[in-house]
Amino acid sequence: MANLEDVPTPDLMTELLRRMKCASKPDKRLILIGPPGSGKGTQSPIIKDEYCLCHLATGDMLRAAVAAKTPLGIKVKEAMDKGELVSDDLVVGIIDEAMKKPSCQKGFILDGFPRTVVQAQKLDEMLAKQGSKIDKVLNFAIDDAILEERITGRWIHPPSGRTYHSKFAPPKVSGIDDVSGEPLIQRKDDTAEVLKSRLEAFHRQTEPVIDYYSKKGLVVQLPAEKPPKEVTTEVEKALS
Q1: What is each CA distance from 222 to 57, 112, 229, in whole angstroms?
Q2: Which one of 61, 185, 213, 239 is separated from 32 by 20 to 30 angstroms, measured CA to CA?
């Protein structure tokens, strides 16, 4: 724990002002659902900052629990070392643990979980034990054909992280980074074949989760094919 005397005054003031602003925000427990490339990664930091929520991405949480060697983290590592999938109960346990952090006081955004109806049921049971529940499920709805155009056109300059798109944000010279003149690459995941299998898994496993929460009246459909700024406006409307 940092000694507060050693924290620079501007940093302390910034954090204090942030907490005062957050105190007036309503609590929100959100799930973001959408296929790869639907824009969840663009919107989640905006939602997180606006509503003072913590962002719970299951992959990051599992890695953090393993690194911290928590009792659950040790079990996760054992499963991973054996090449097994981490059980739903373990993942829900890790989420339960993560929610107790001060940064999750106003609520959370769950991203990448639940992926199946069984996981959704286990999550709801865990929240019910805490006396809370999911408030909204934001469904980033988008046509597969638009996603294919979005994802297969992505090019990246690995050293800087600069990204381009052959149609929407092309480099000045095809295949070359504007700044360094070095070659651009396509990530292994950004091919039509990989996308096809990921979309098939999404439709098979995760679309039933949308139906599950629709029956509870929690799903808001977002037009994820729109430009990011317009999607942000739709998110604000949904959460106001």
Answers
A1: 20, 17, 12
A2: 185
Domain boundaries, the chain: 40-135, 141-205
Over the stretch 59-69, which tens digit does the pLDDT of each residue have? 888 888 889 88
Q: Which residues are catalytic?
A: 40, 115, 154, 187, 198
Which residues on adjacent β-strands are paired with residue 220?
A: 138
Return the beta strands (E) in the chain as ranges: 28-33, 54-57, 107-111, 136-141, 154-157, 162-165, 219-223
Alpha-carbon span 218 to 31, nearest angstrom? 10
- Cα separation of 170 and 153, whole Å? 9
Please give the model's pTM, rounded to 2 decimal places. 0.82
| Number of residues that this document lists for the chain | 240
Alpha carbon separation from 43 to 19, 35, 224 (Å, rounded): 22, 14, 10
Does residue 156 register a pLDDT over 70? yes
Reading the block at residue 117, the tokens are: 């109806």
Q: With respect to CATH, is domain 40-135 assigned 3.40.50.720?
A: no
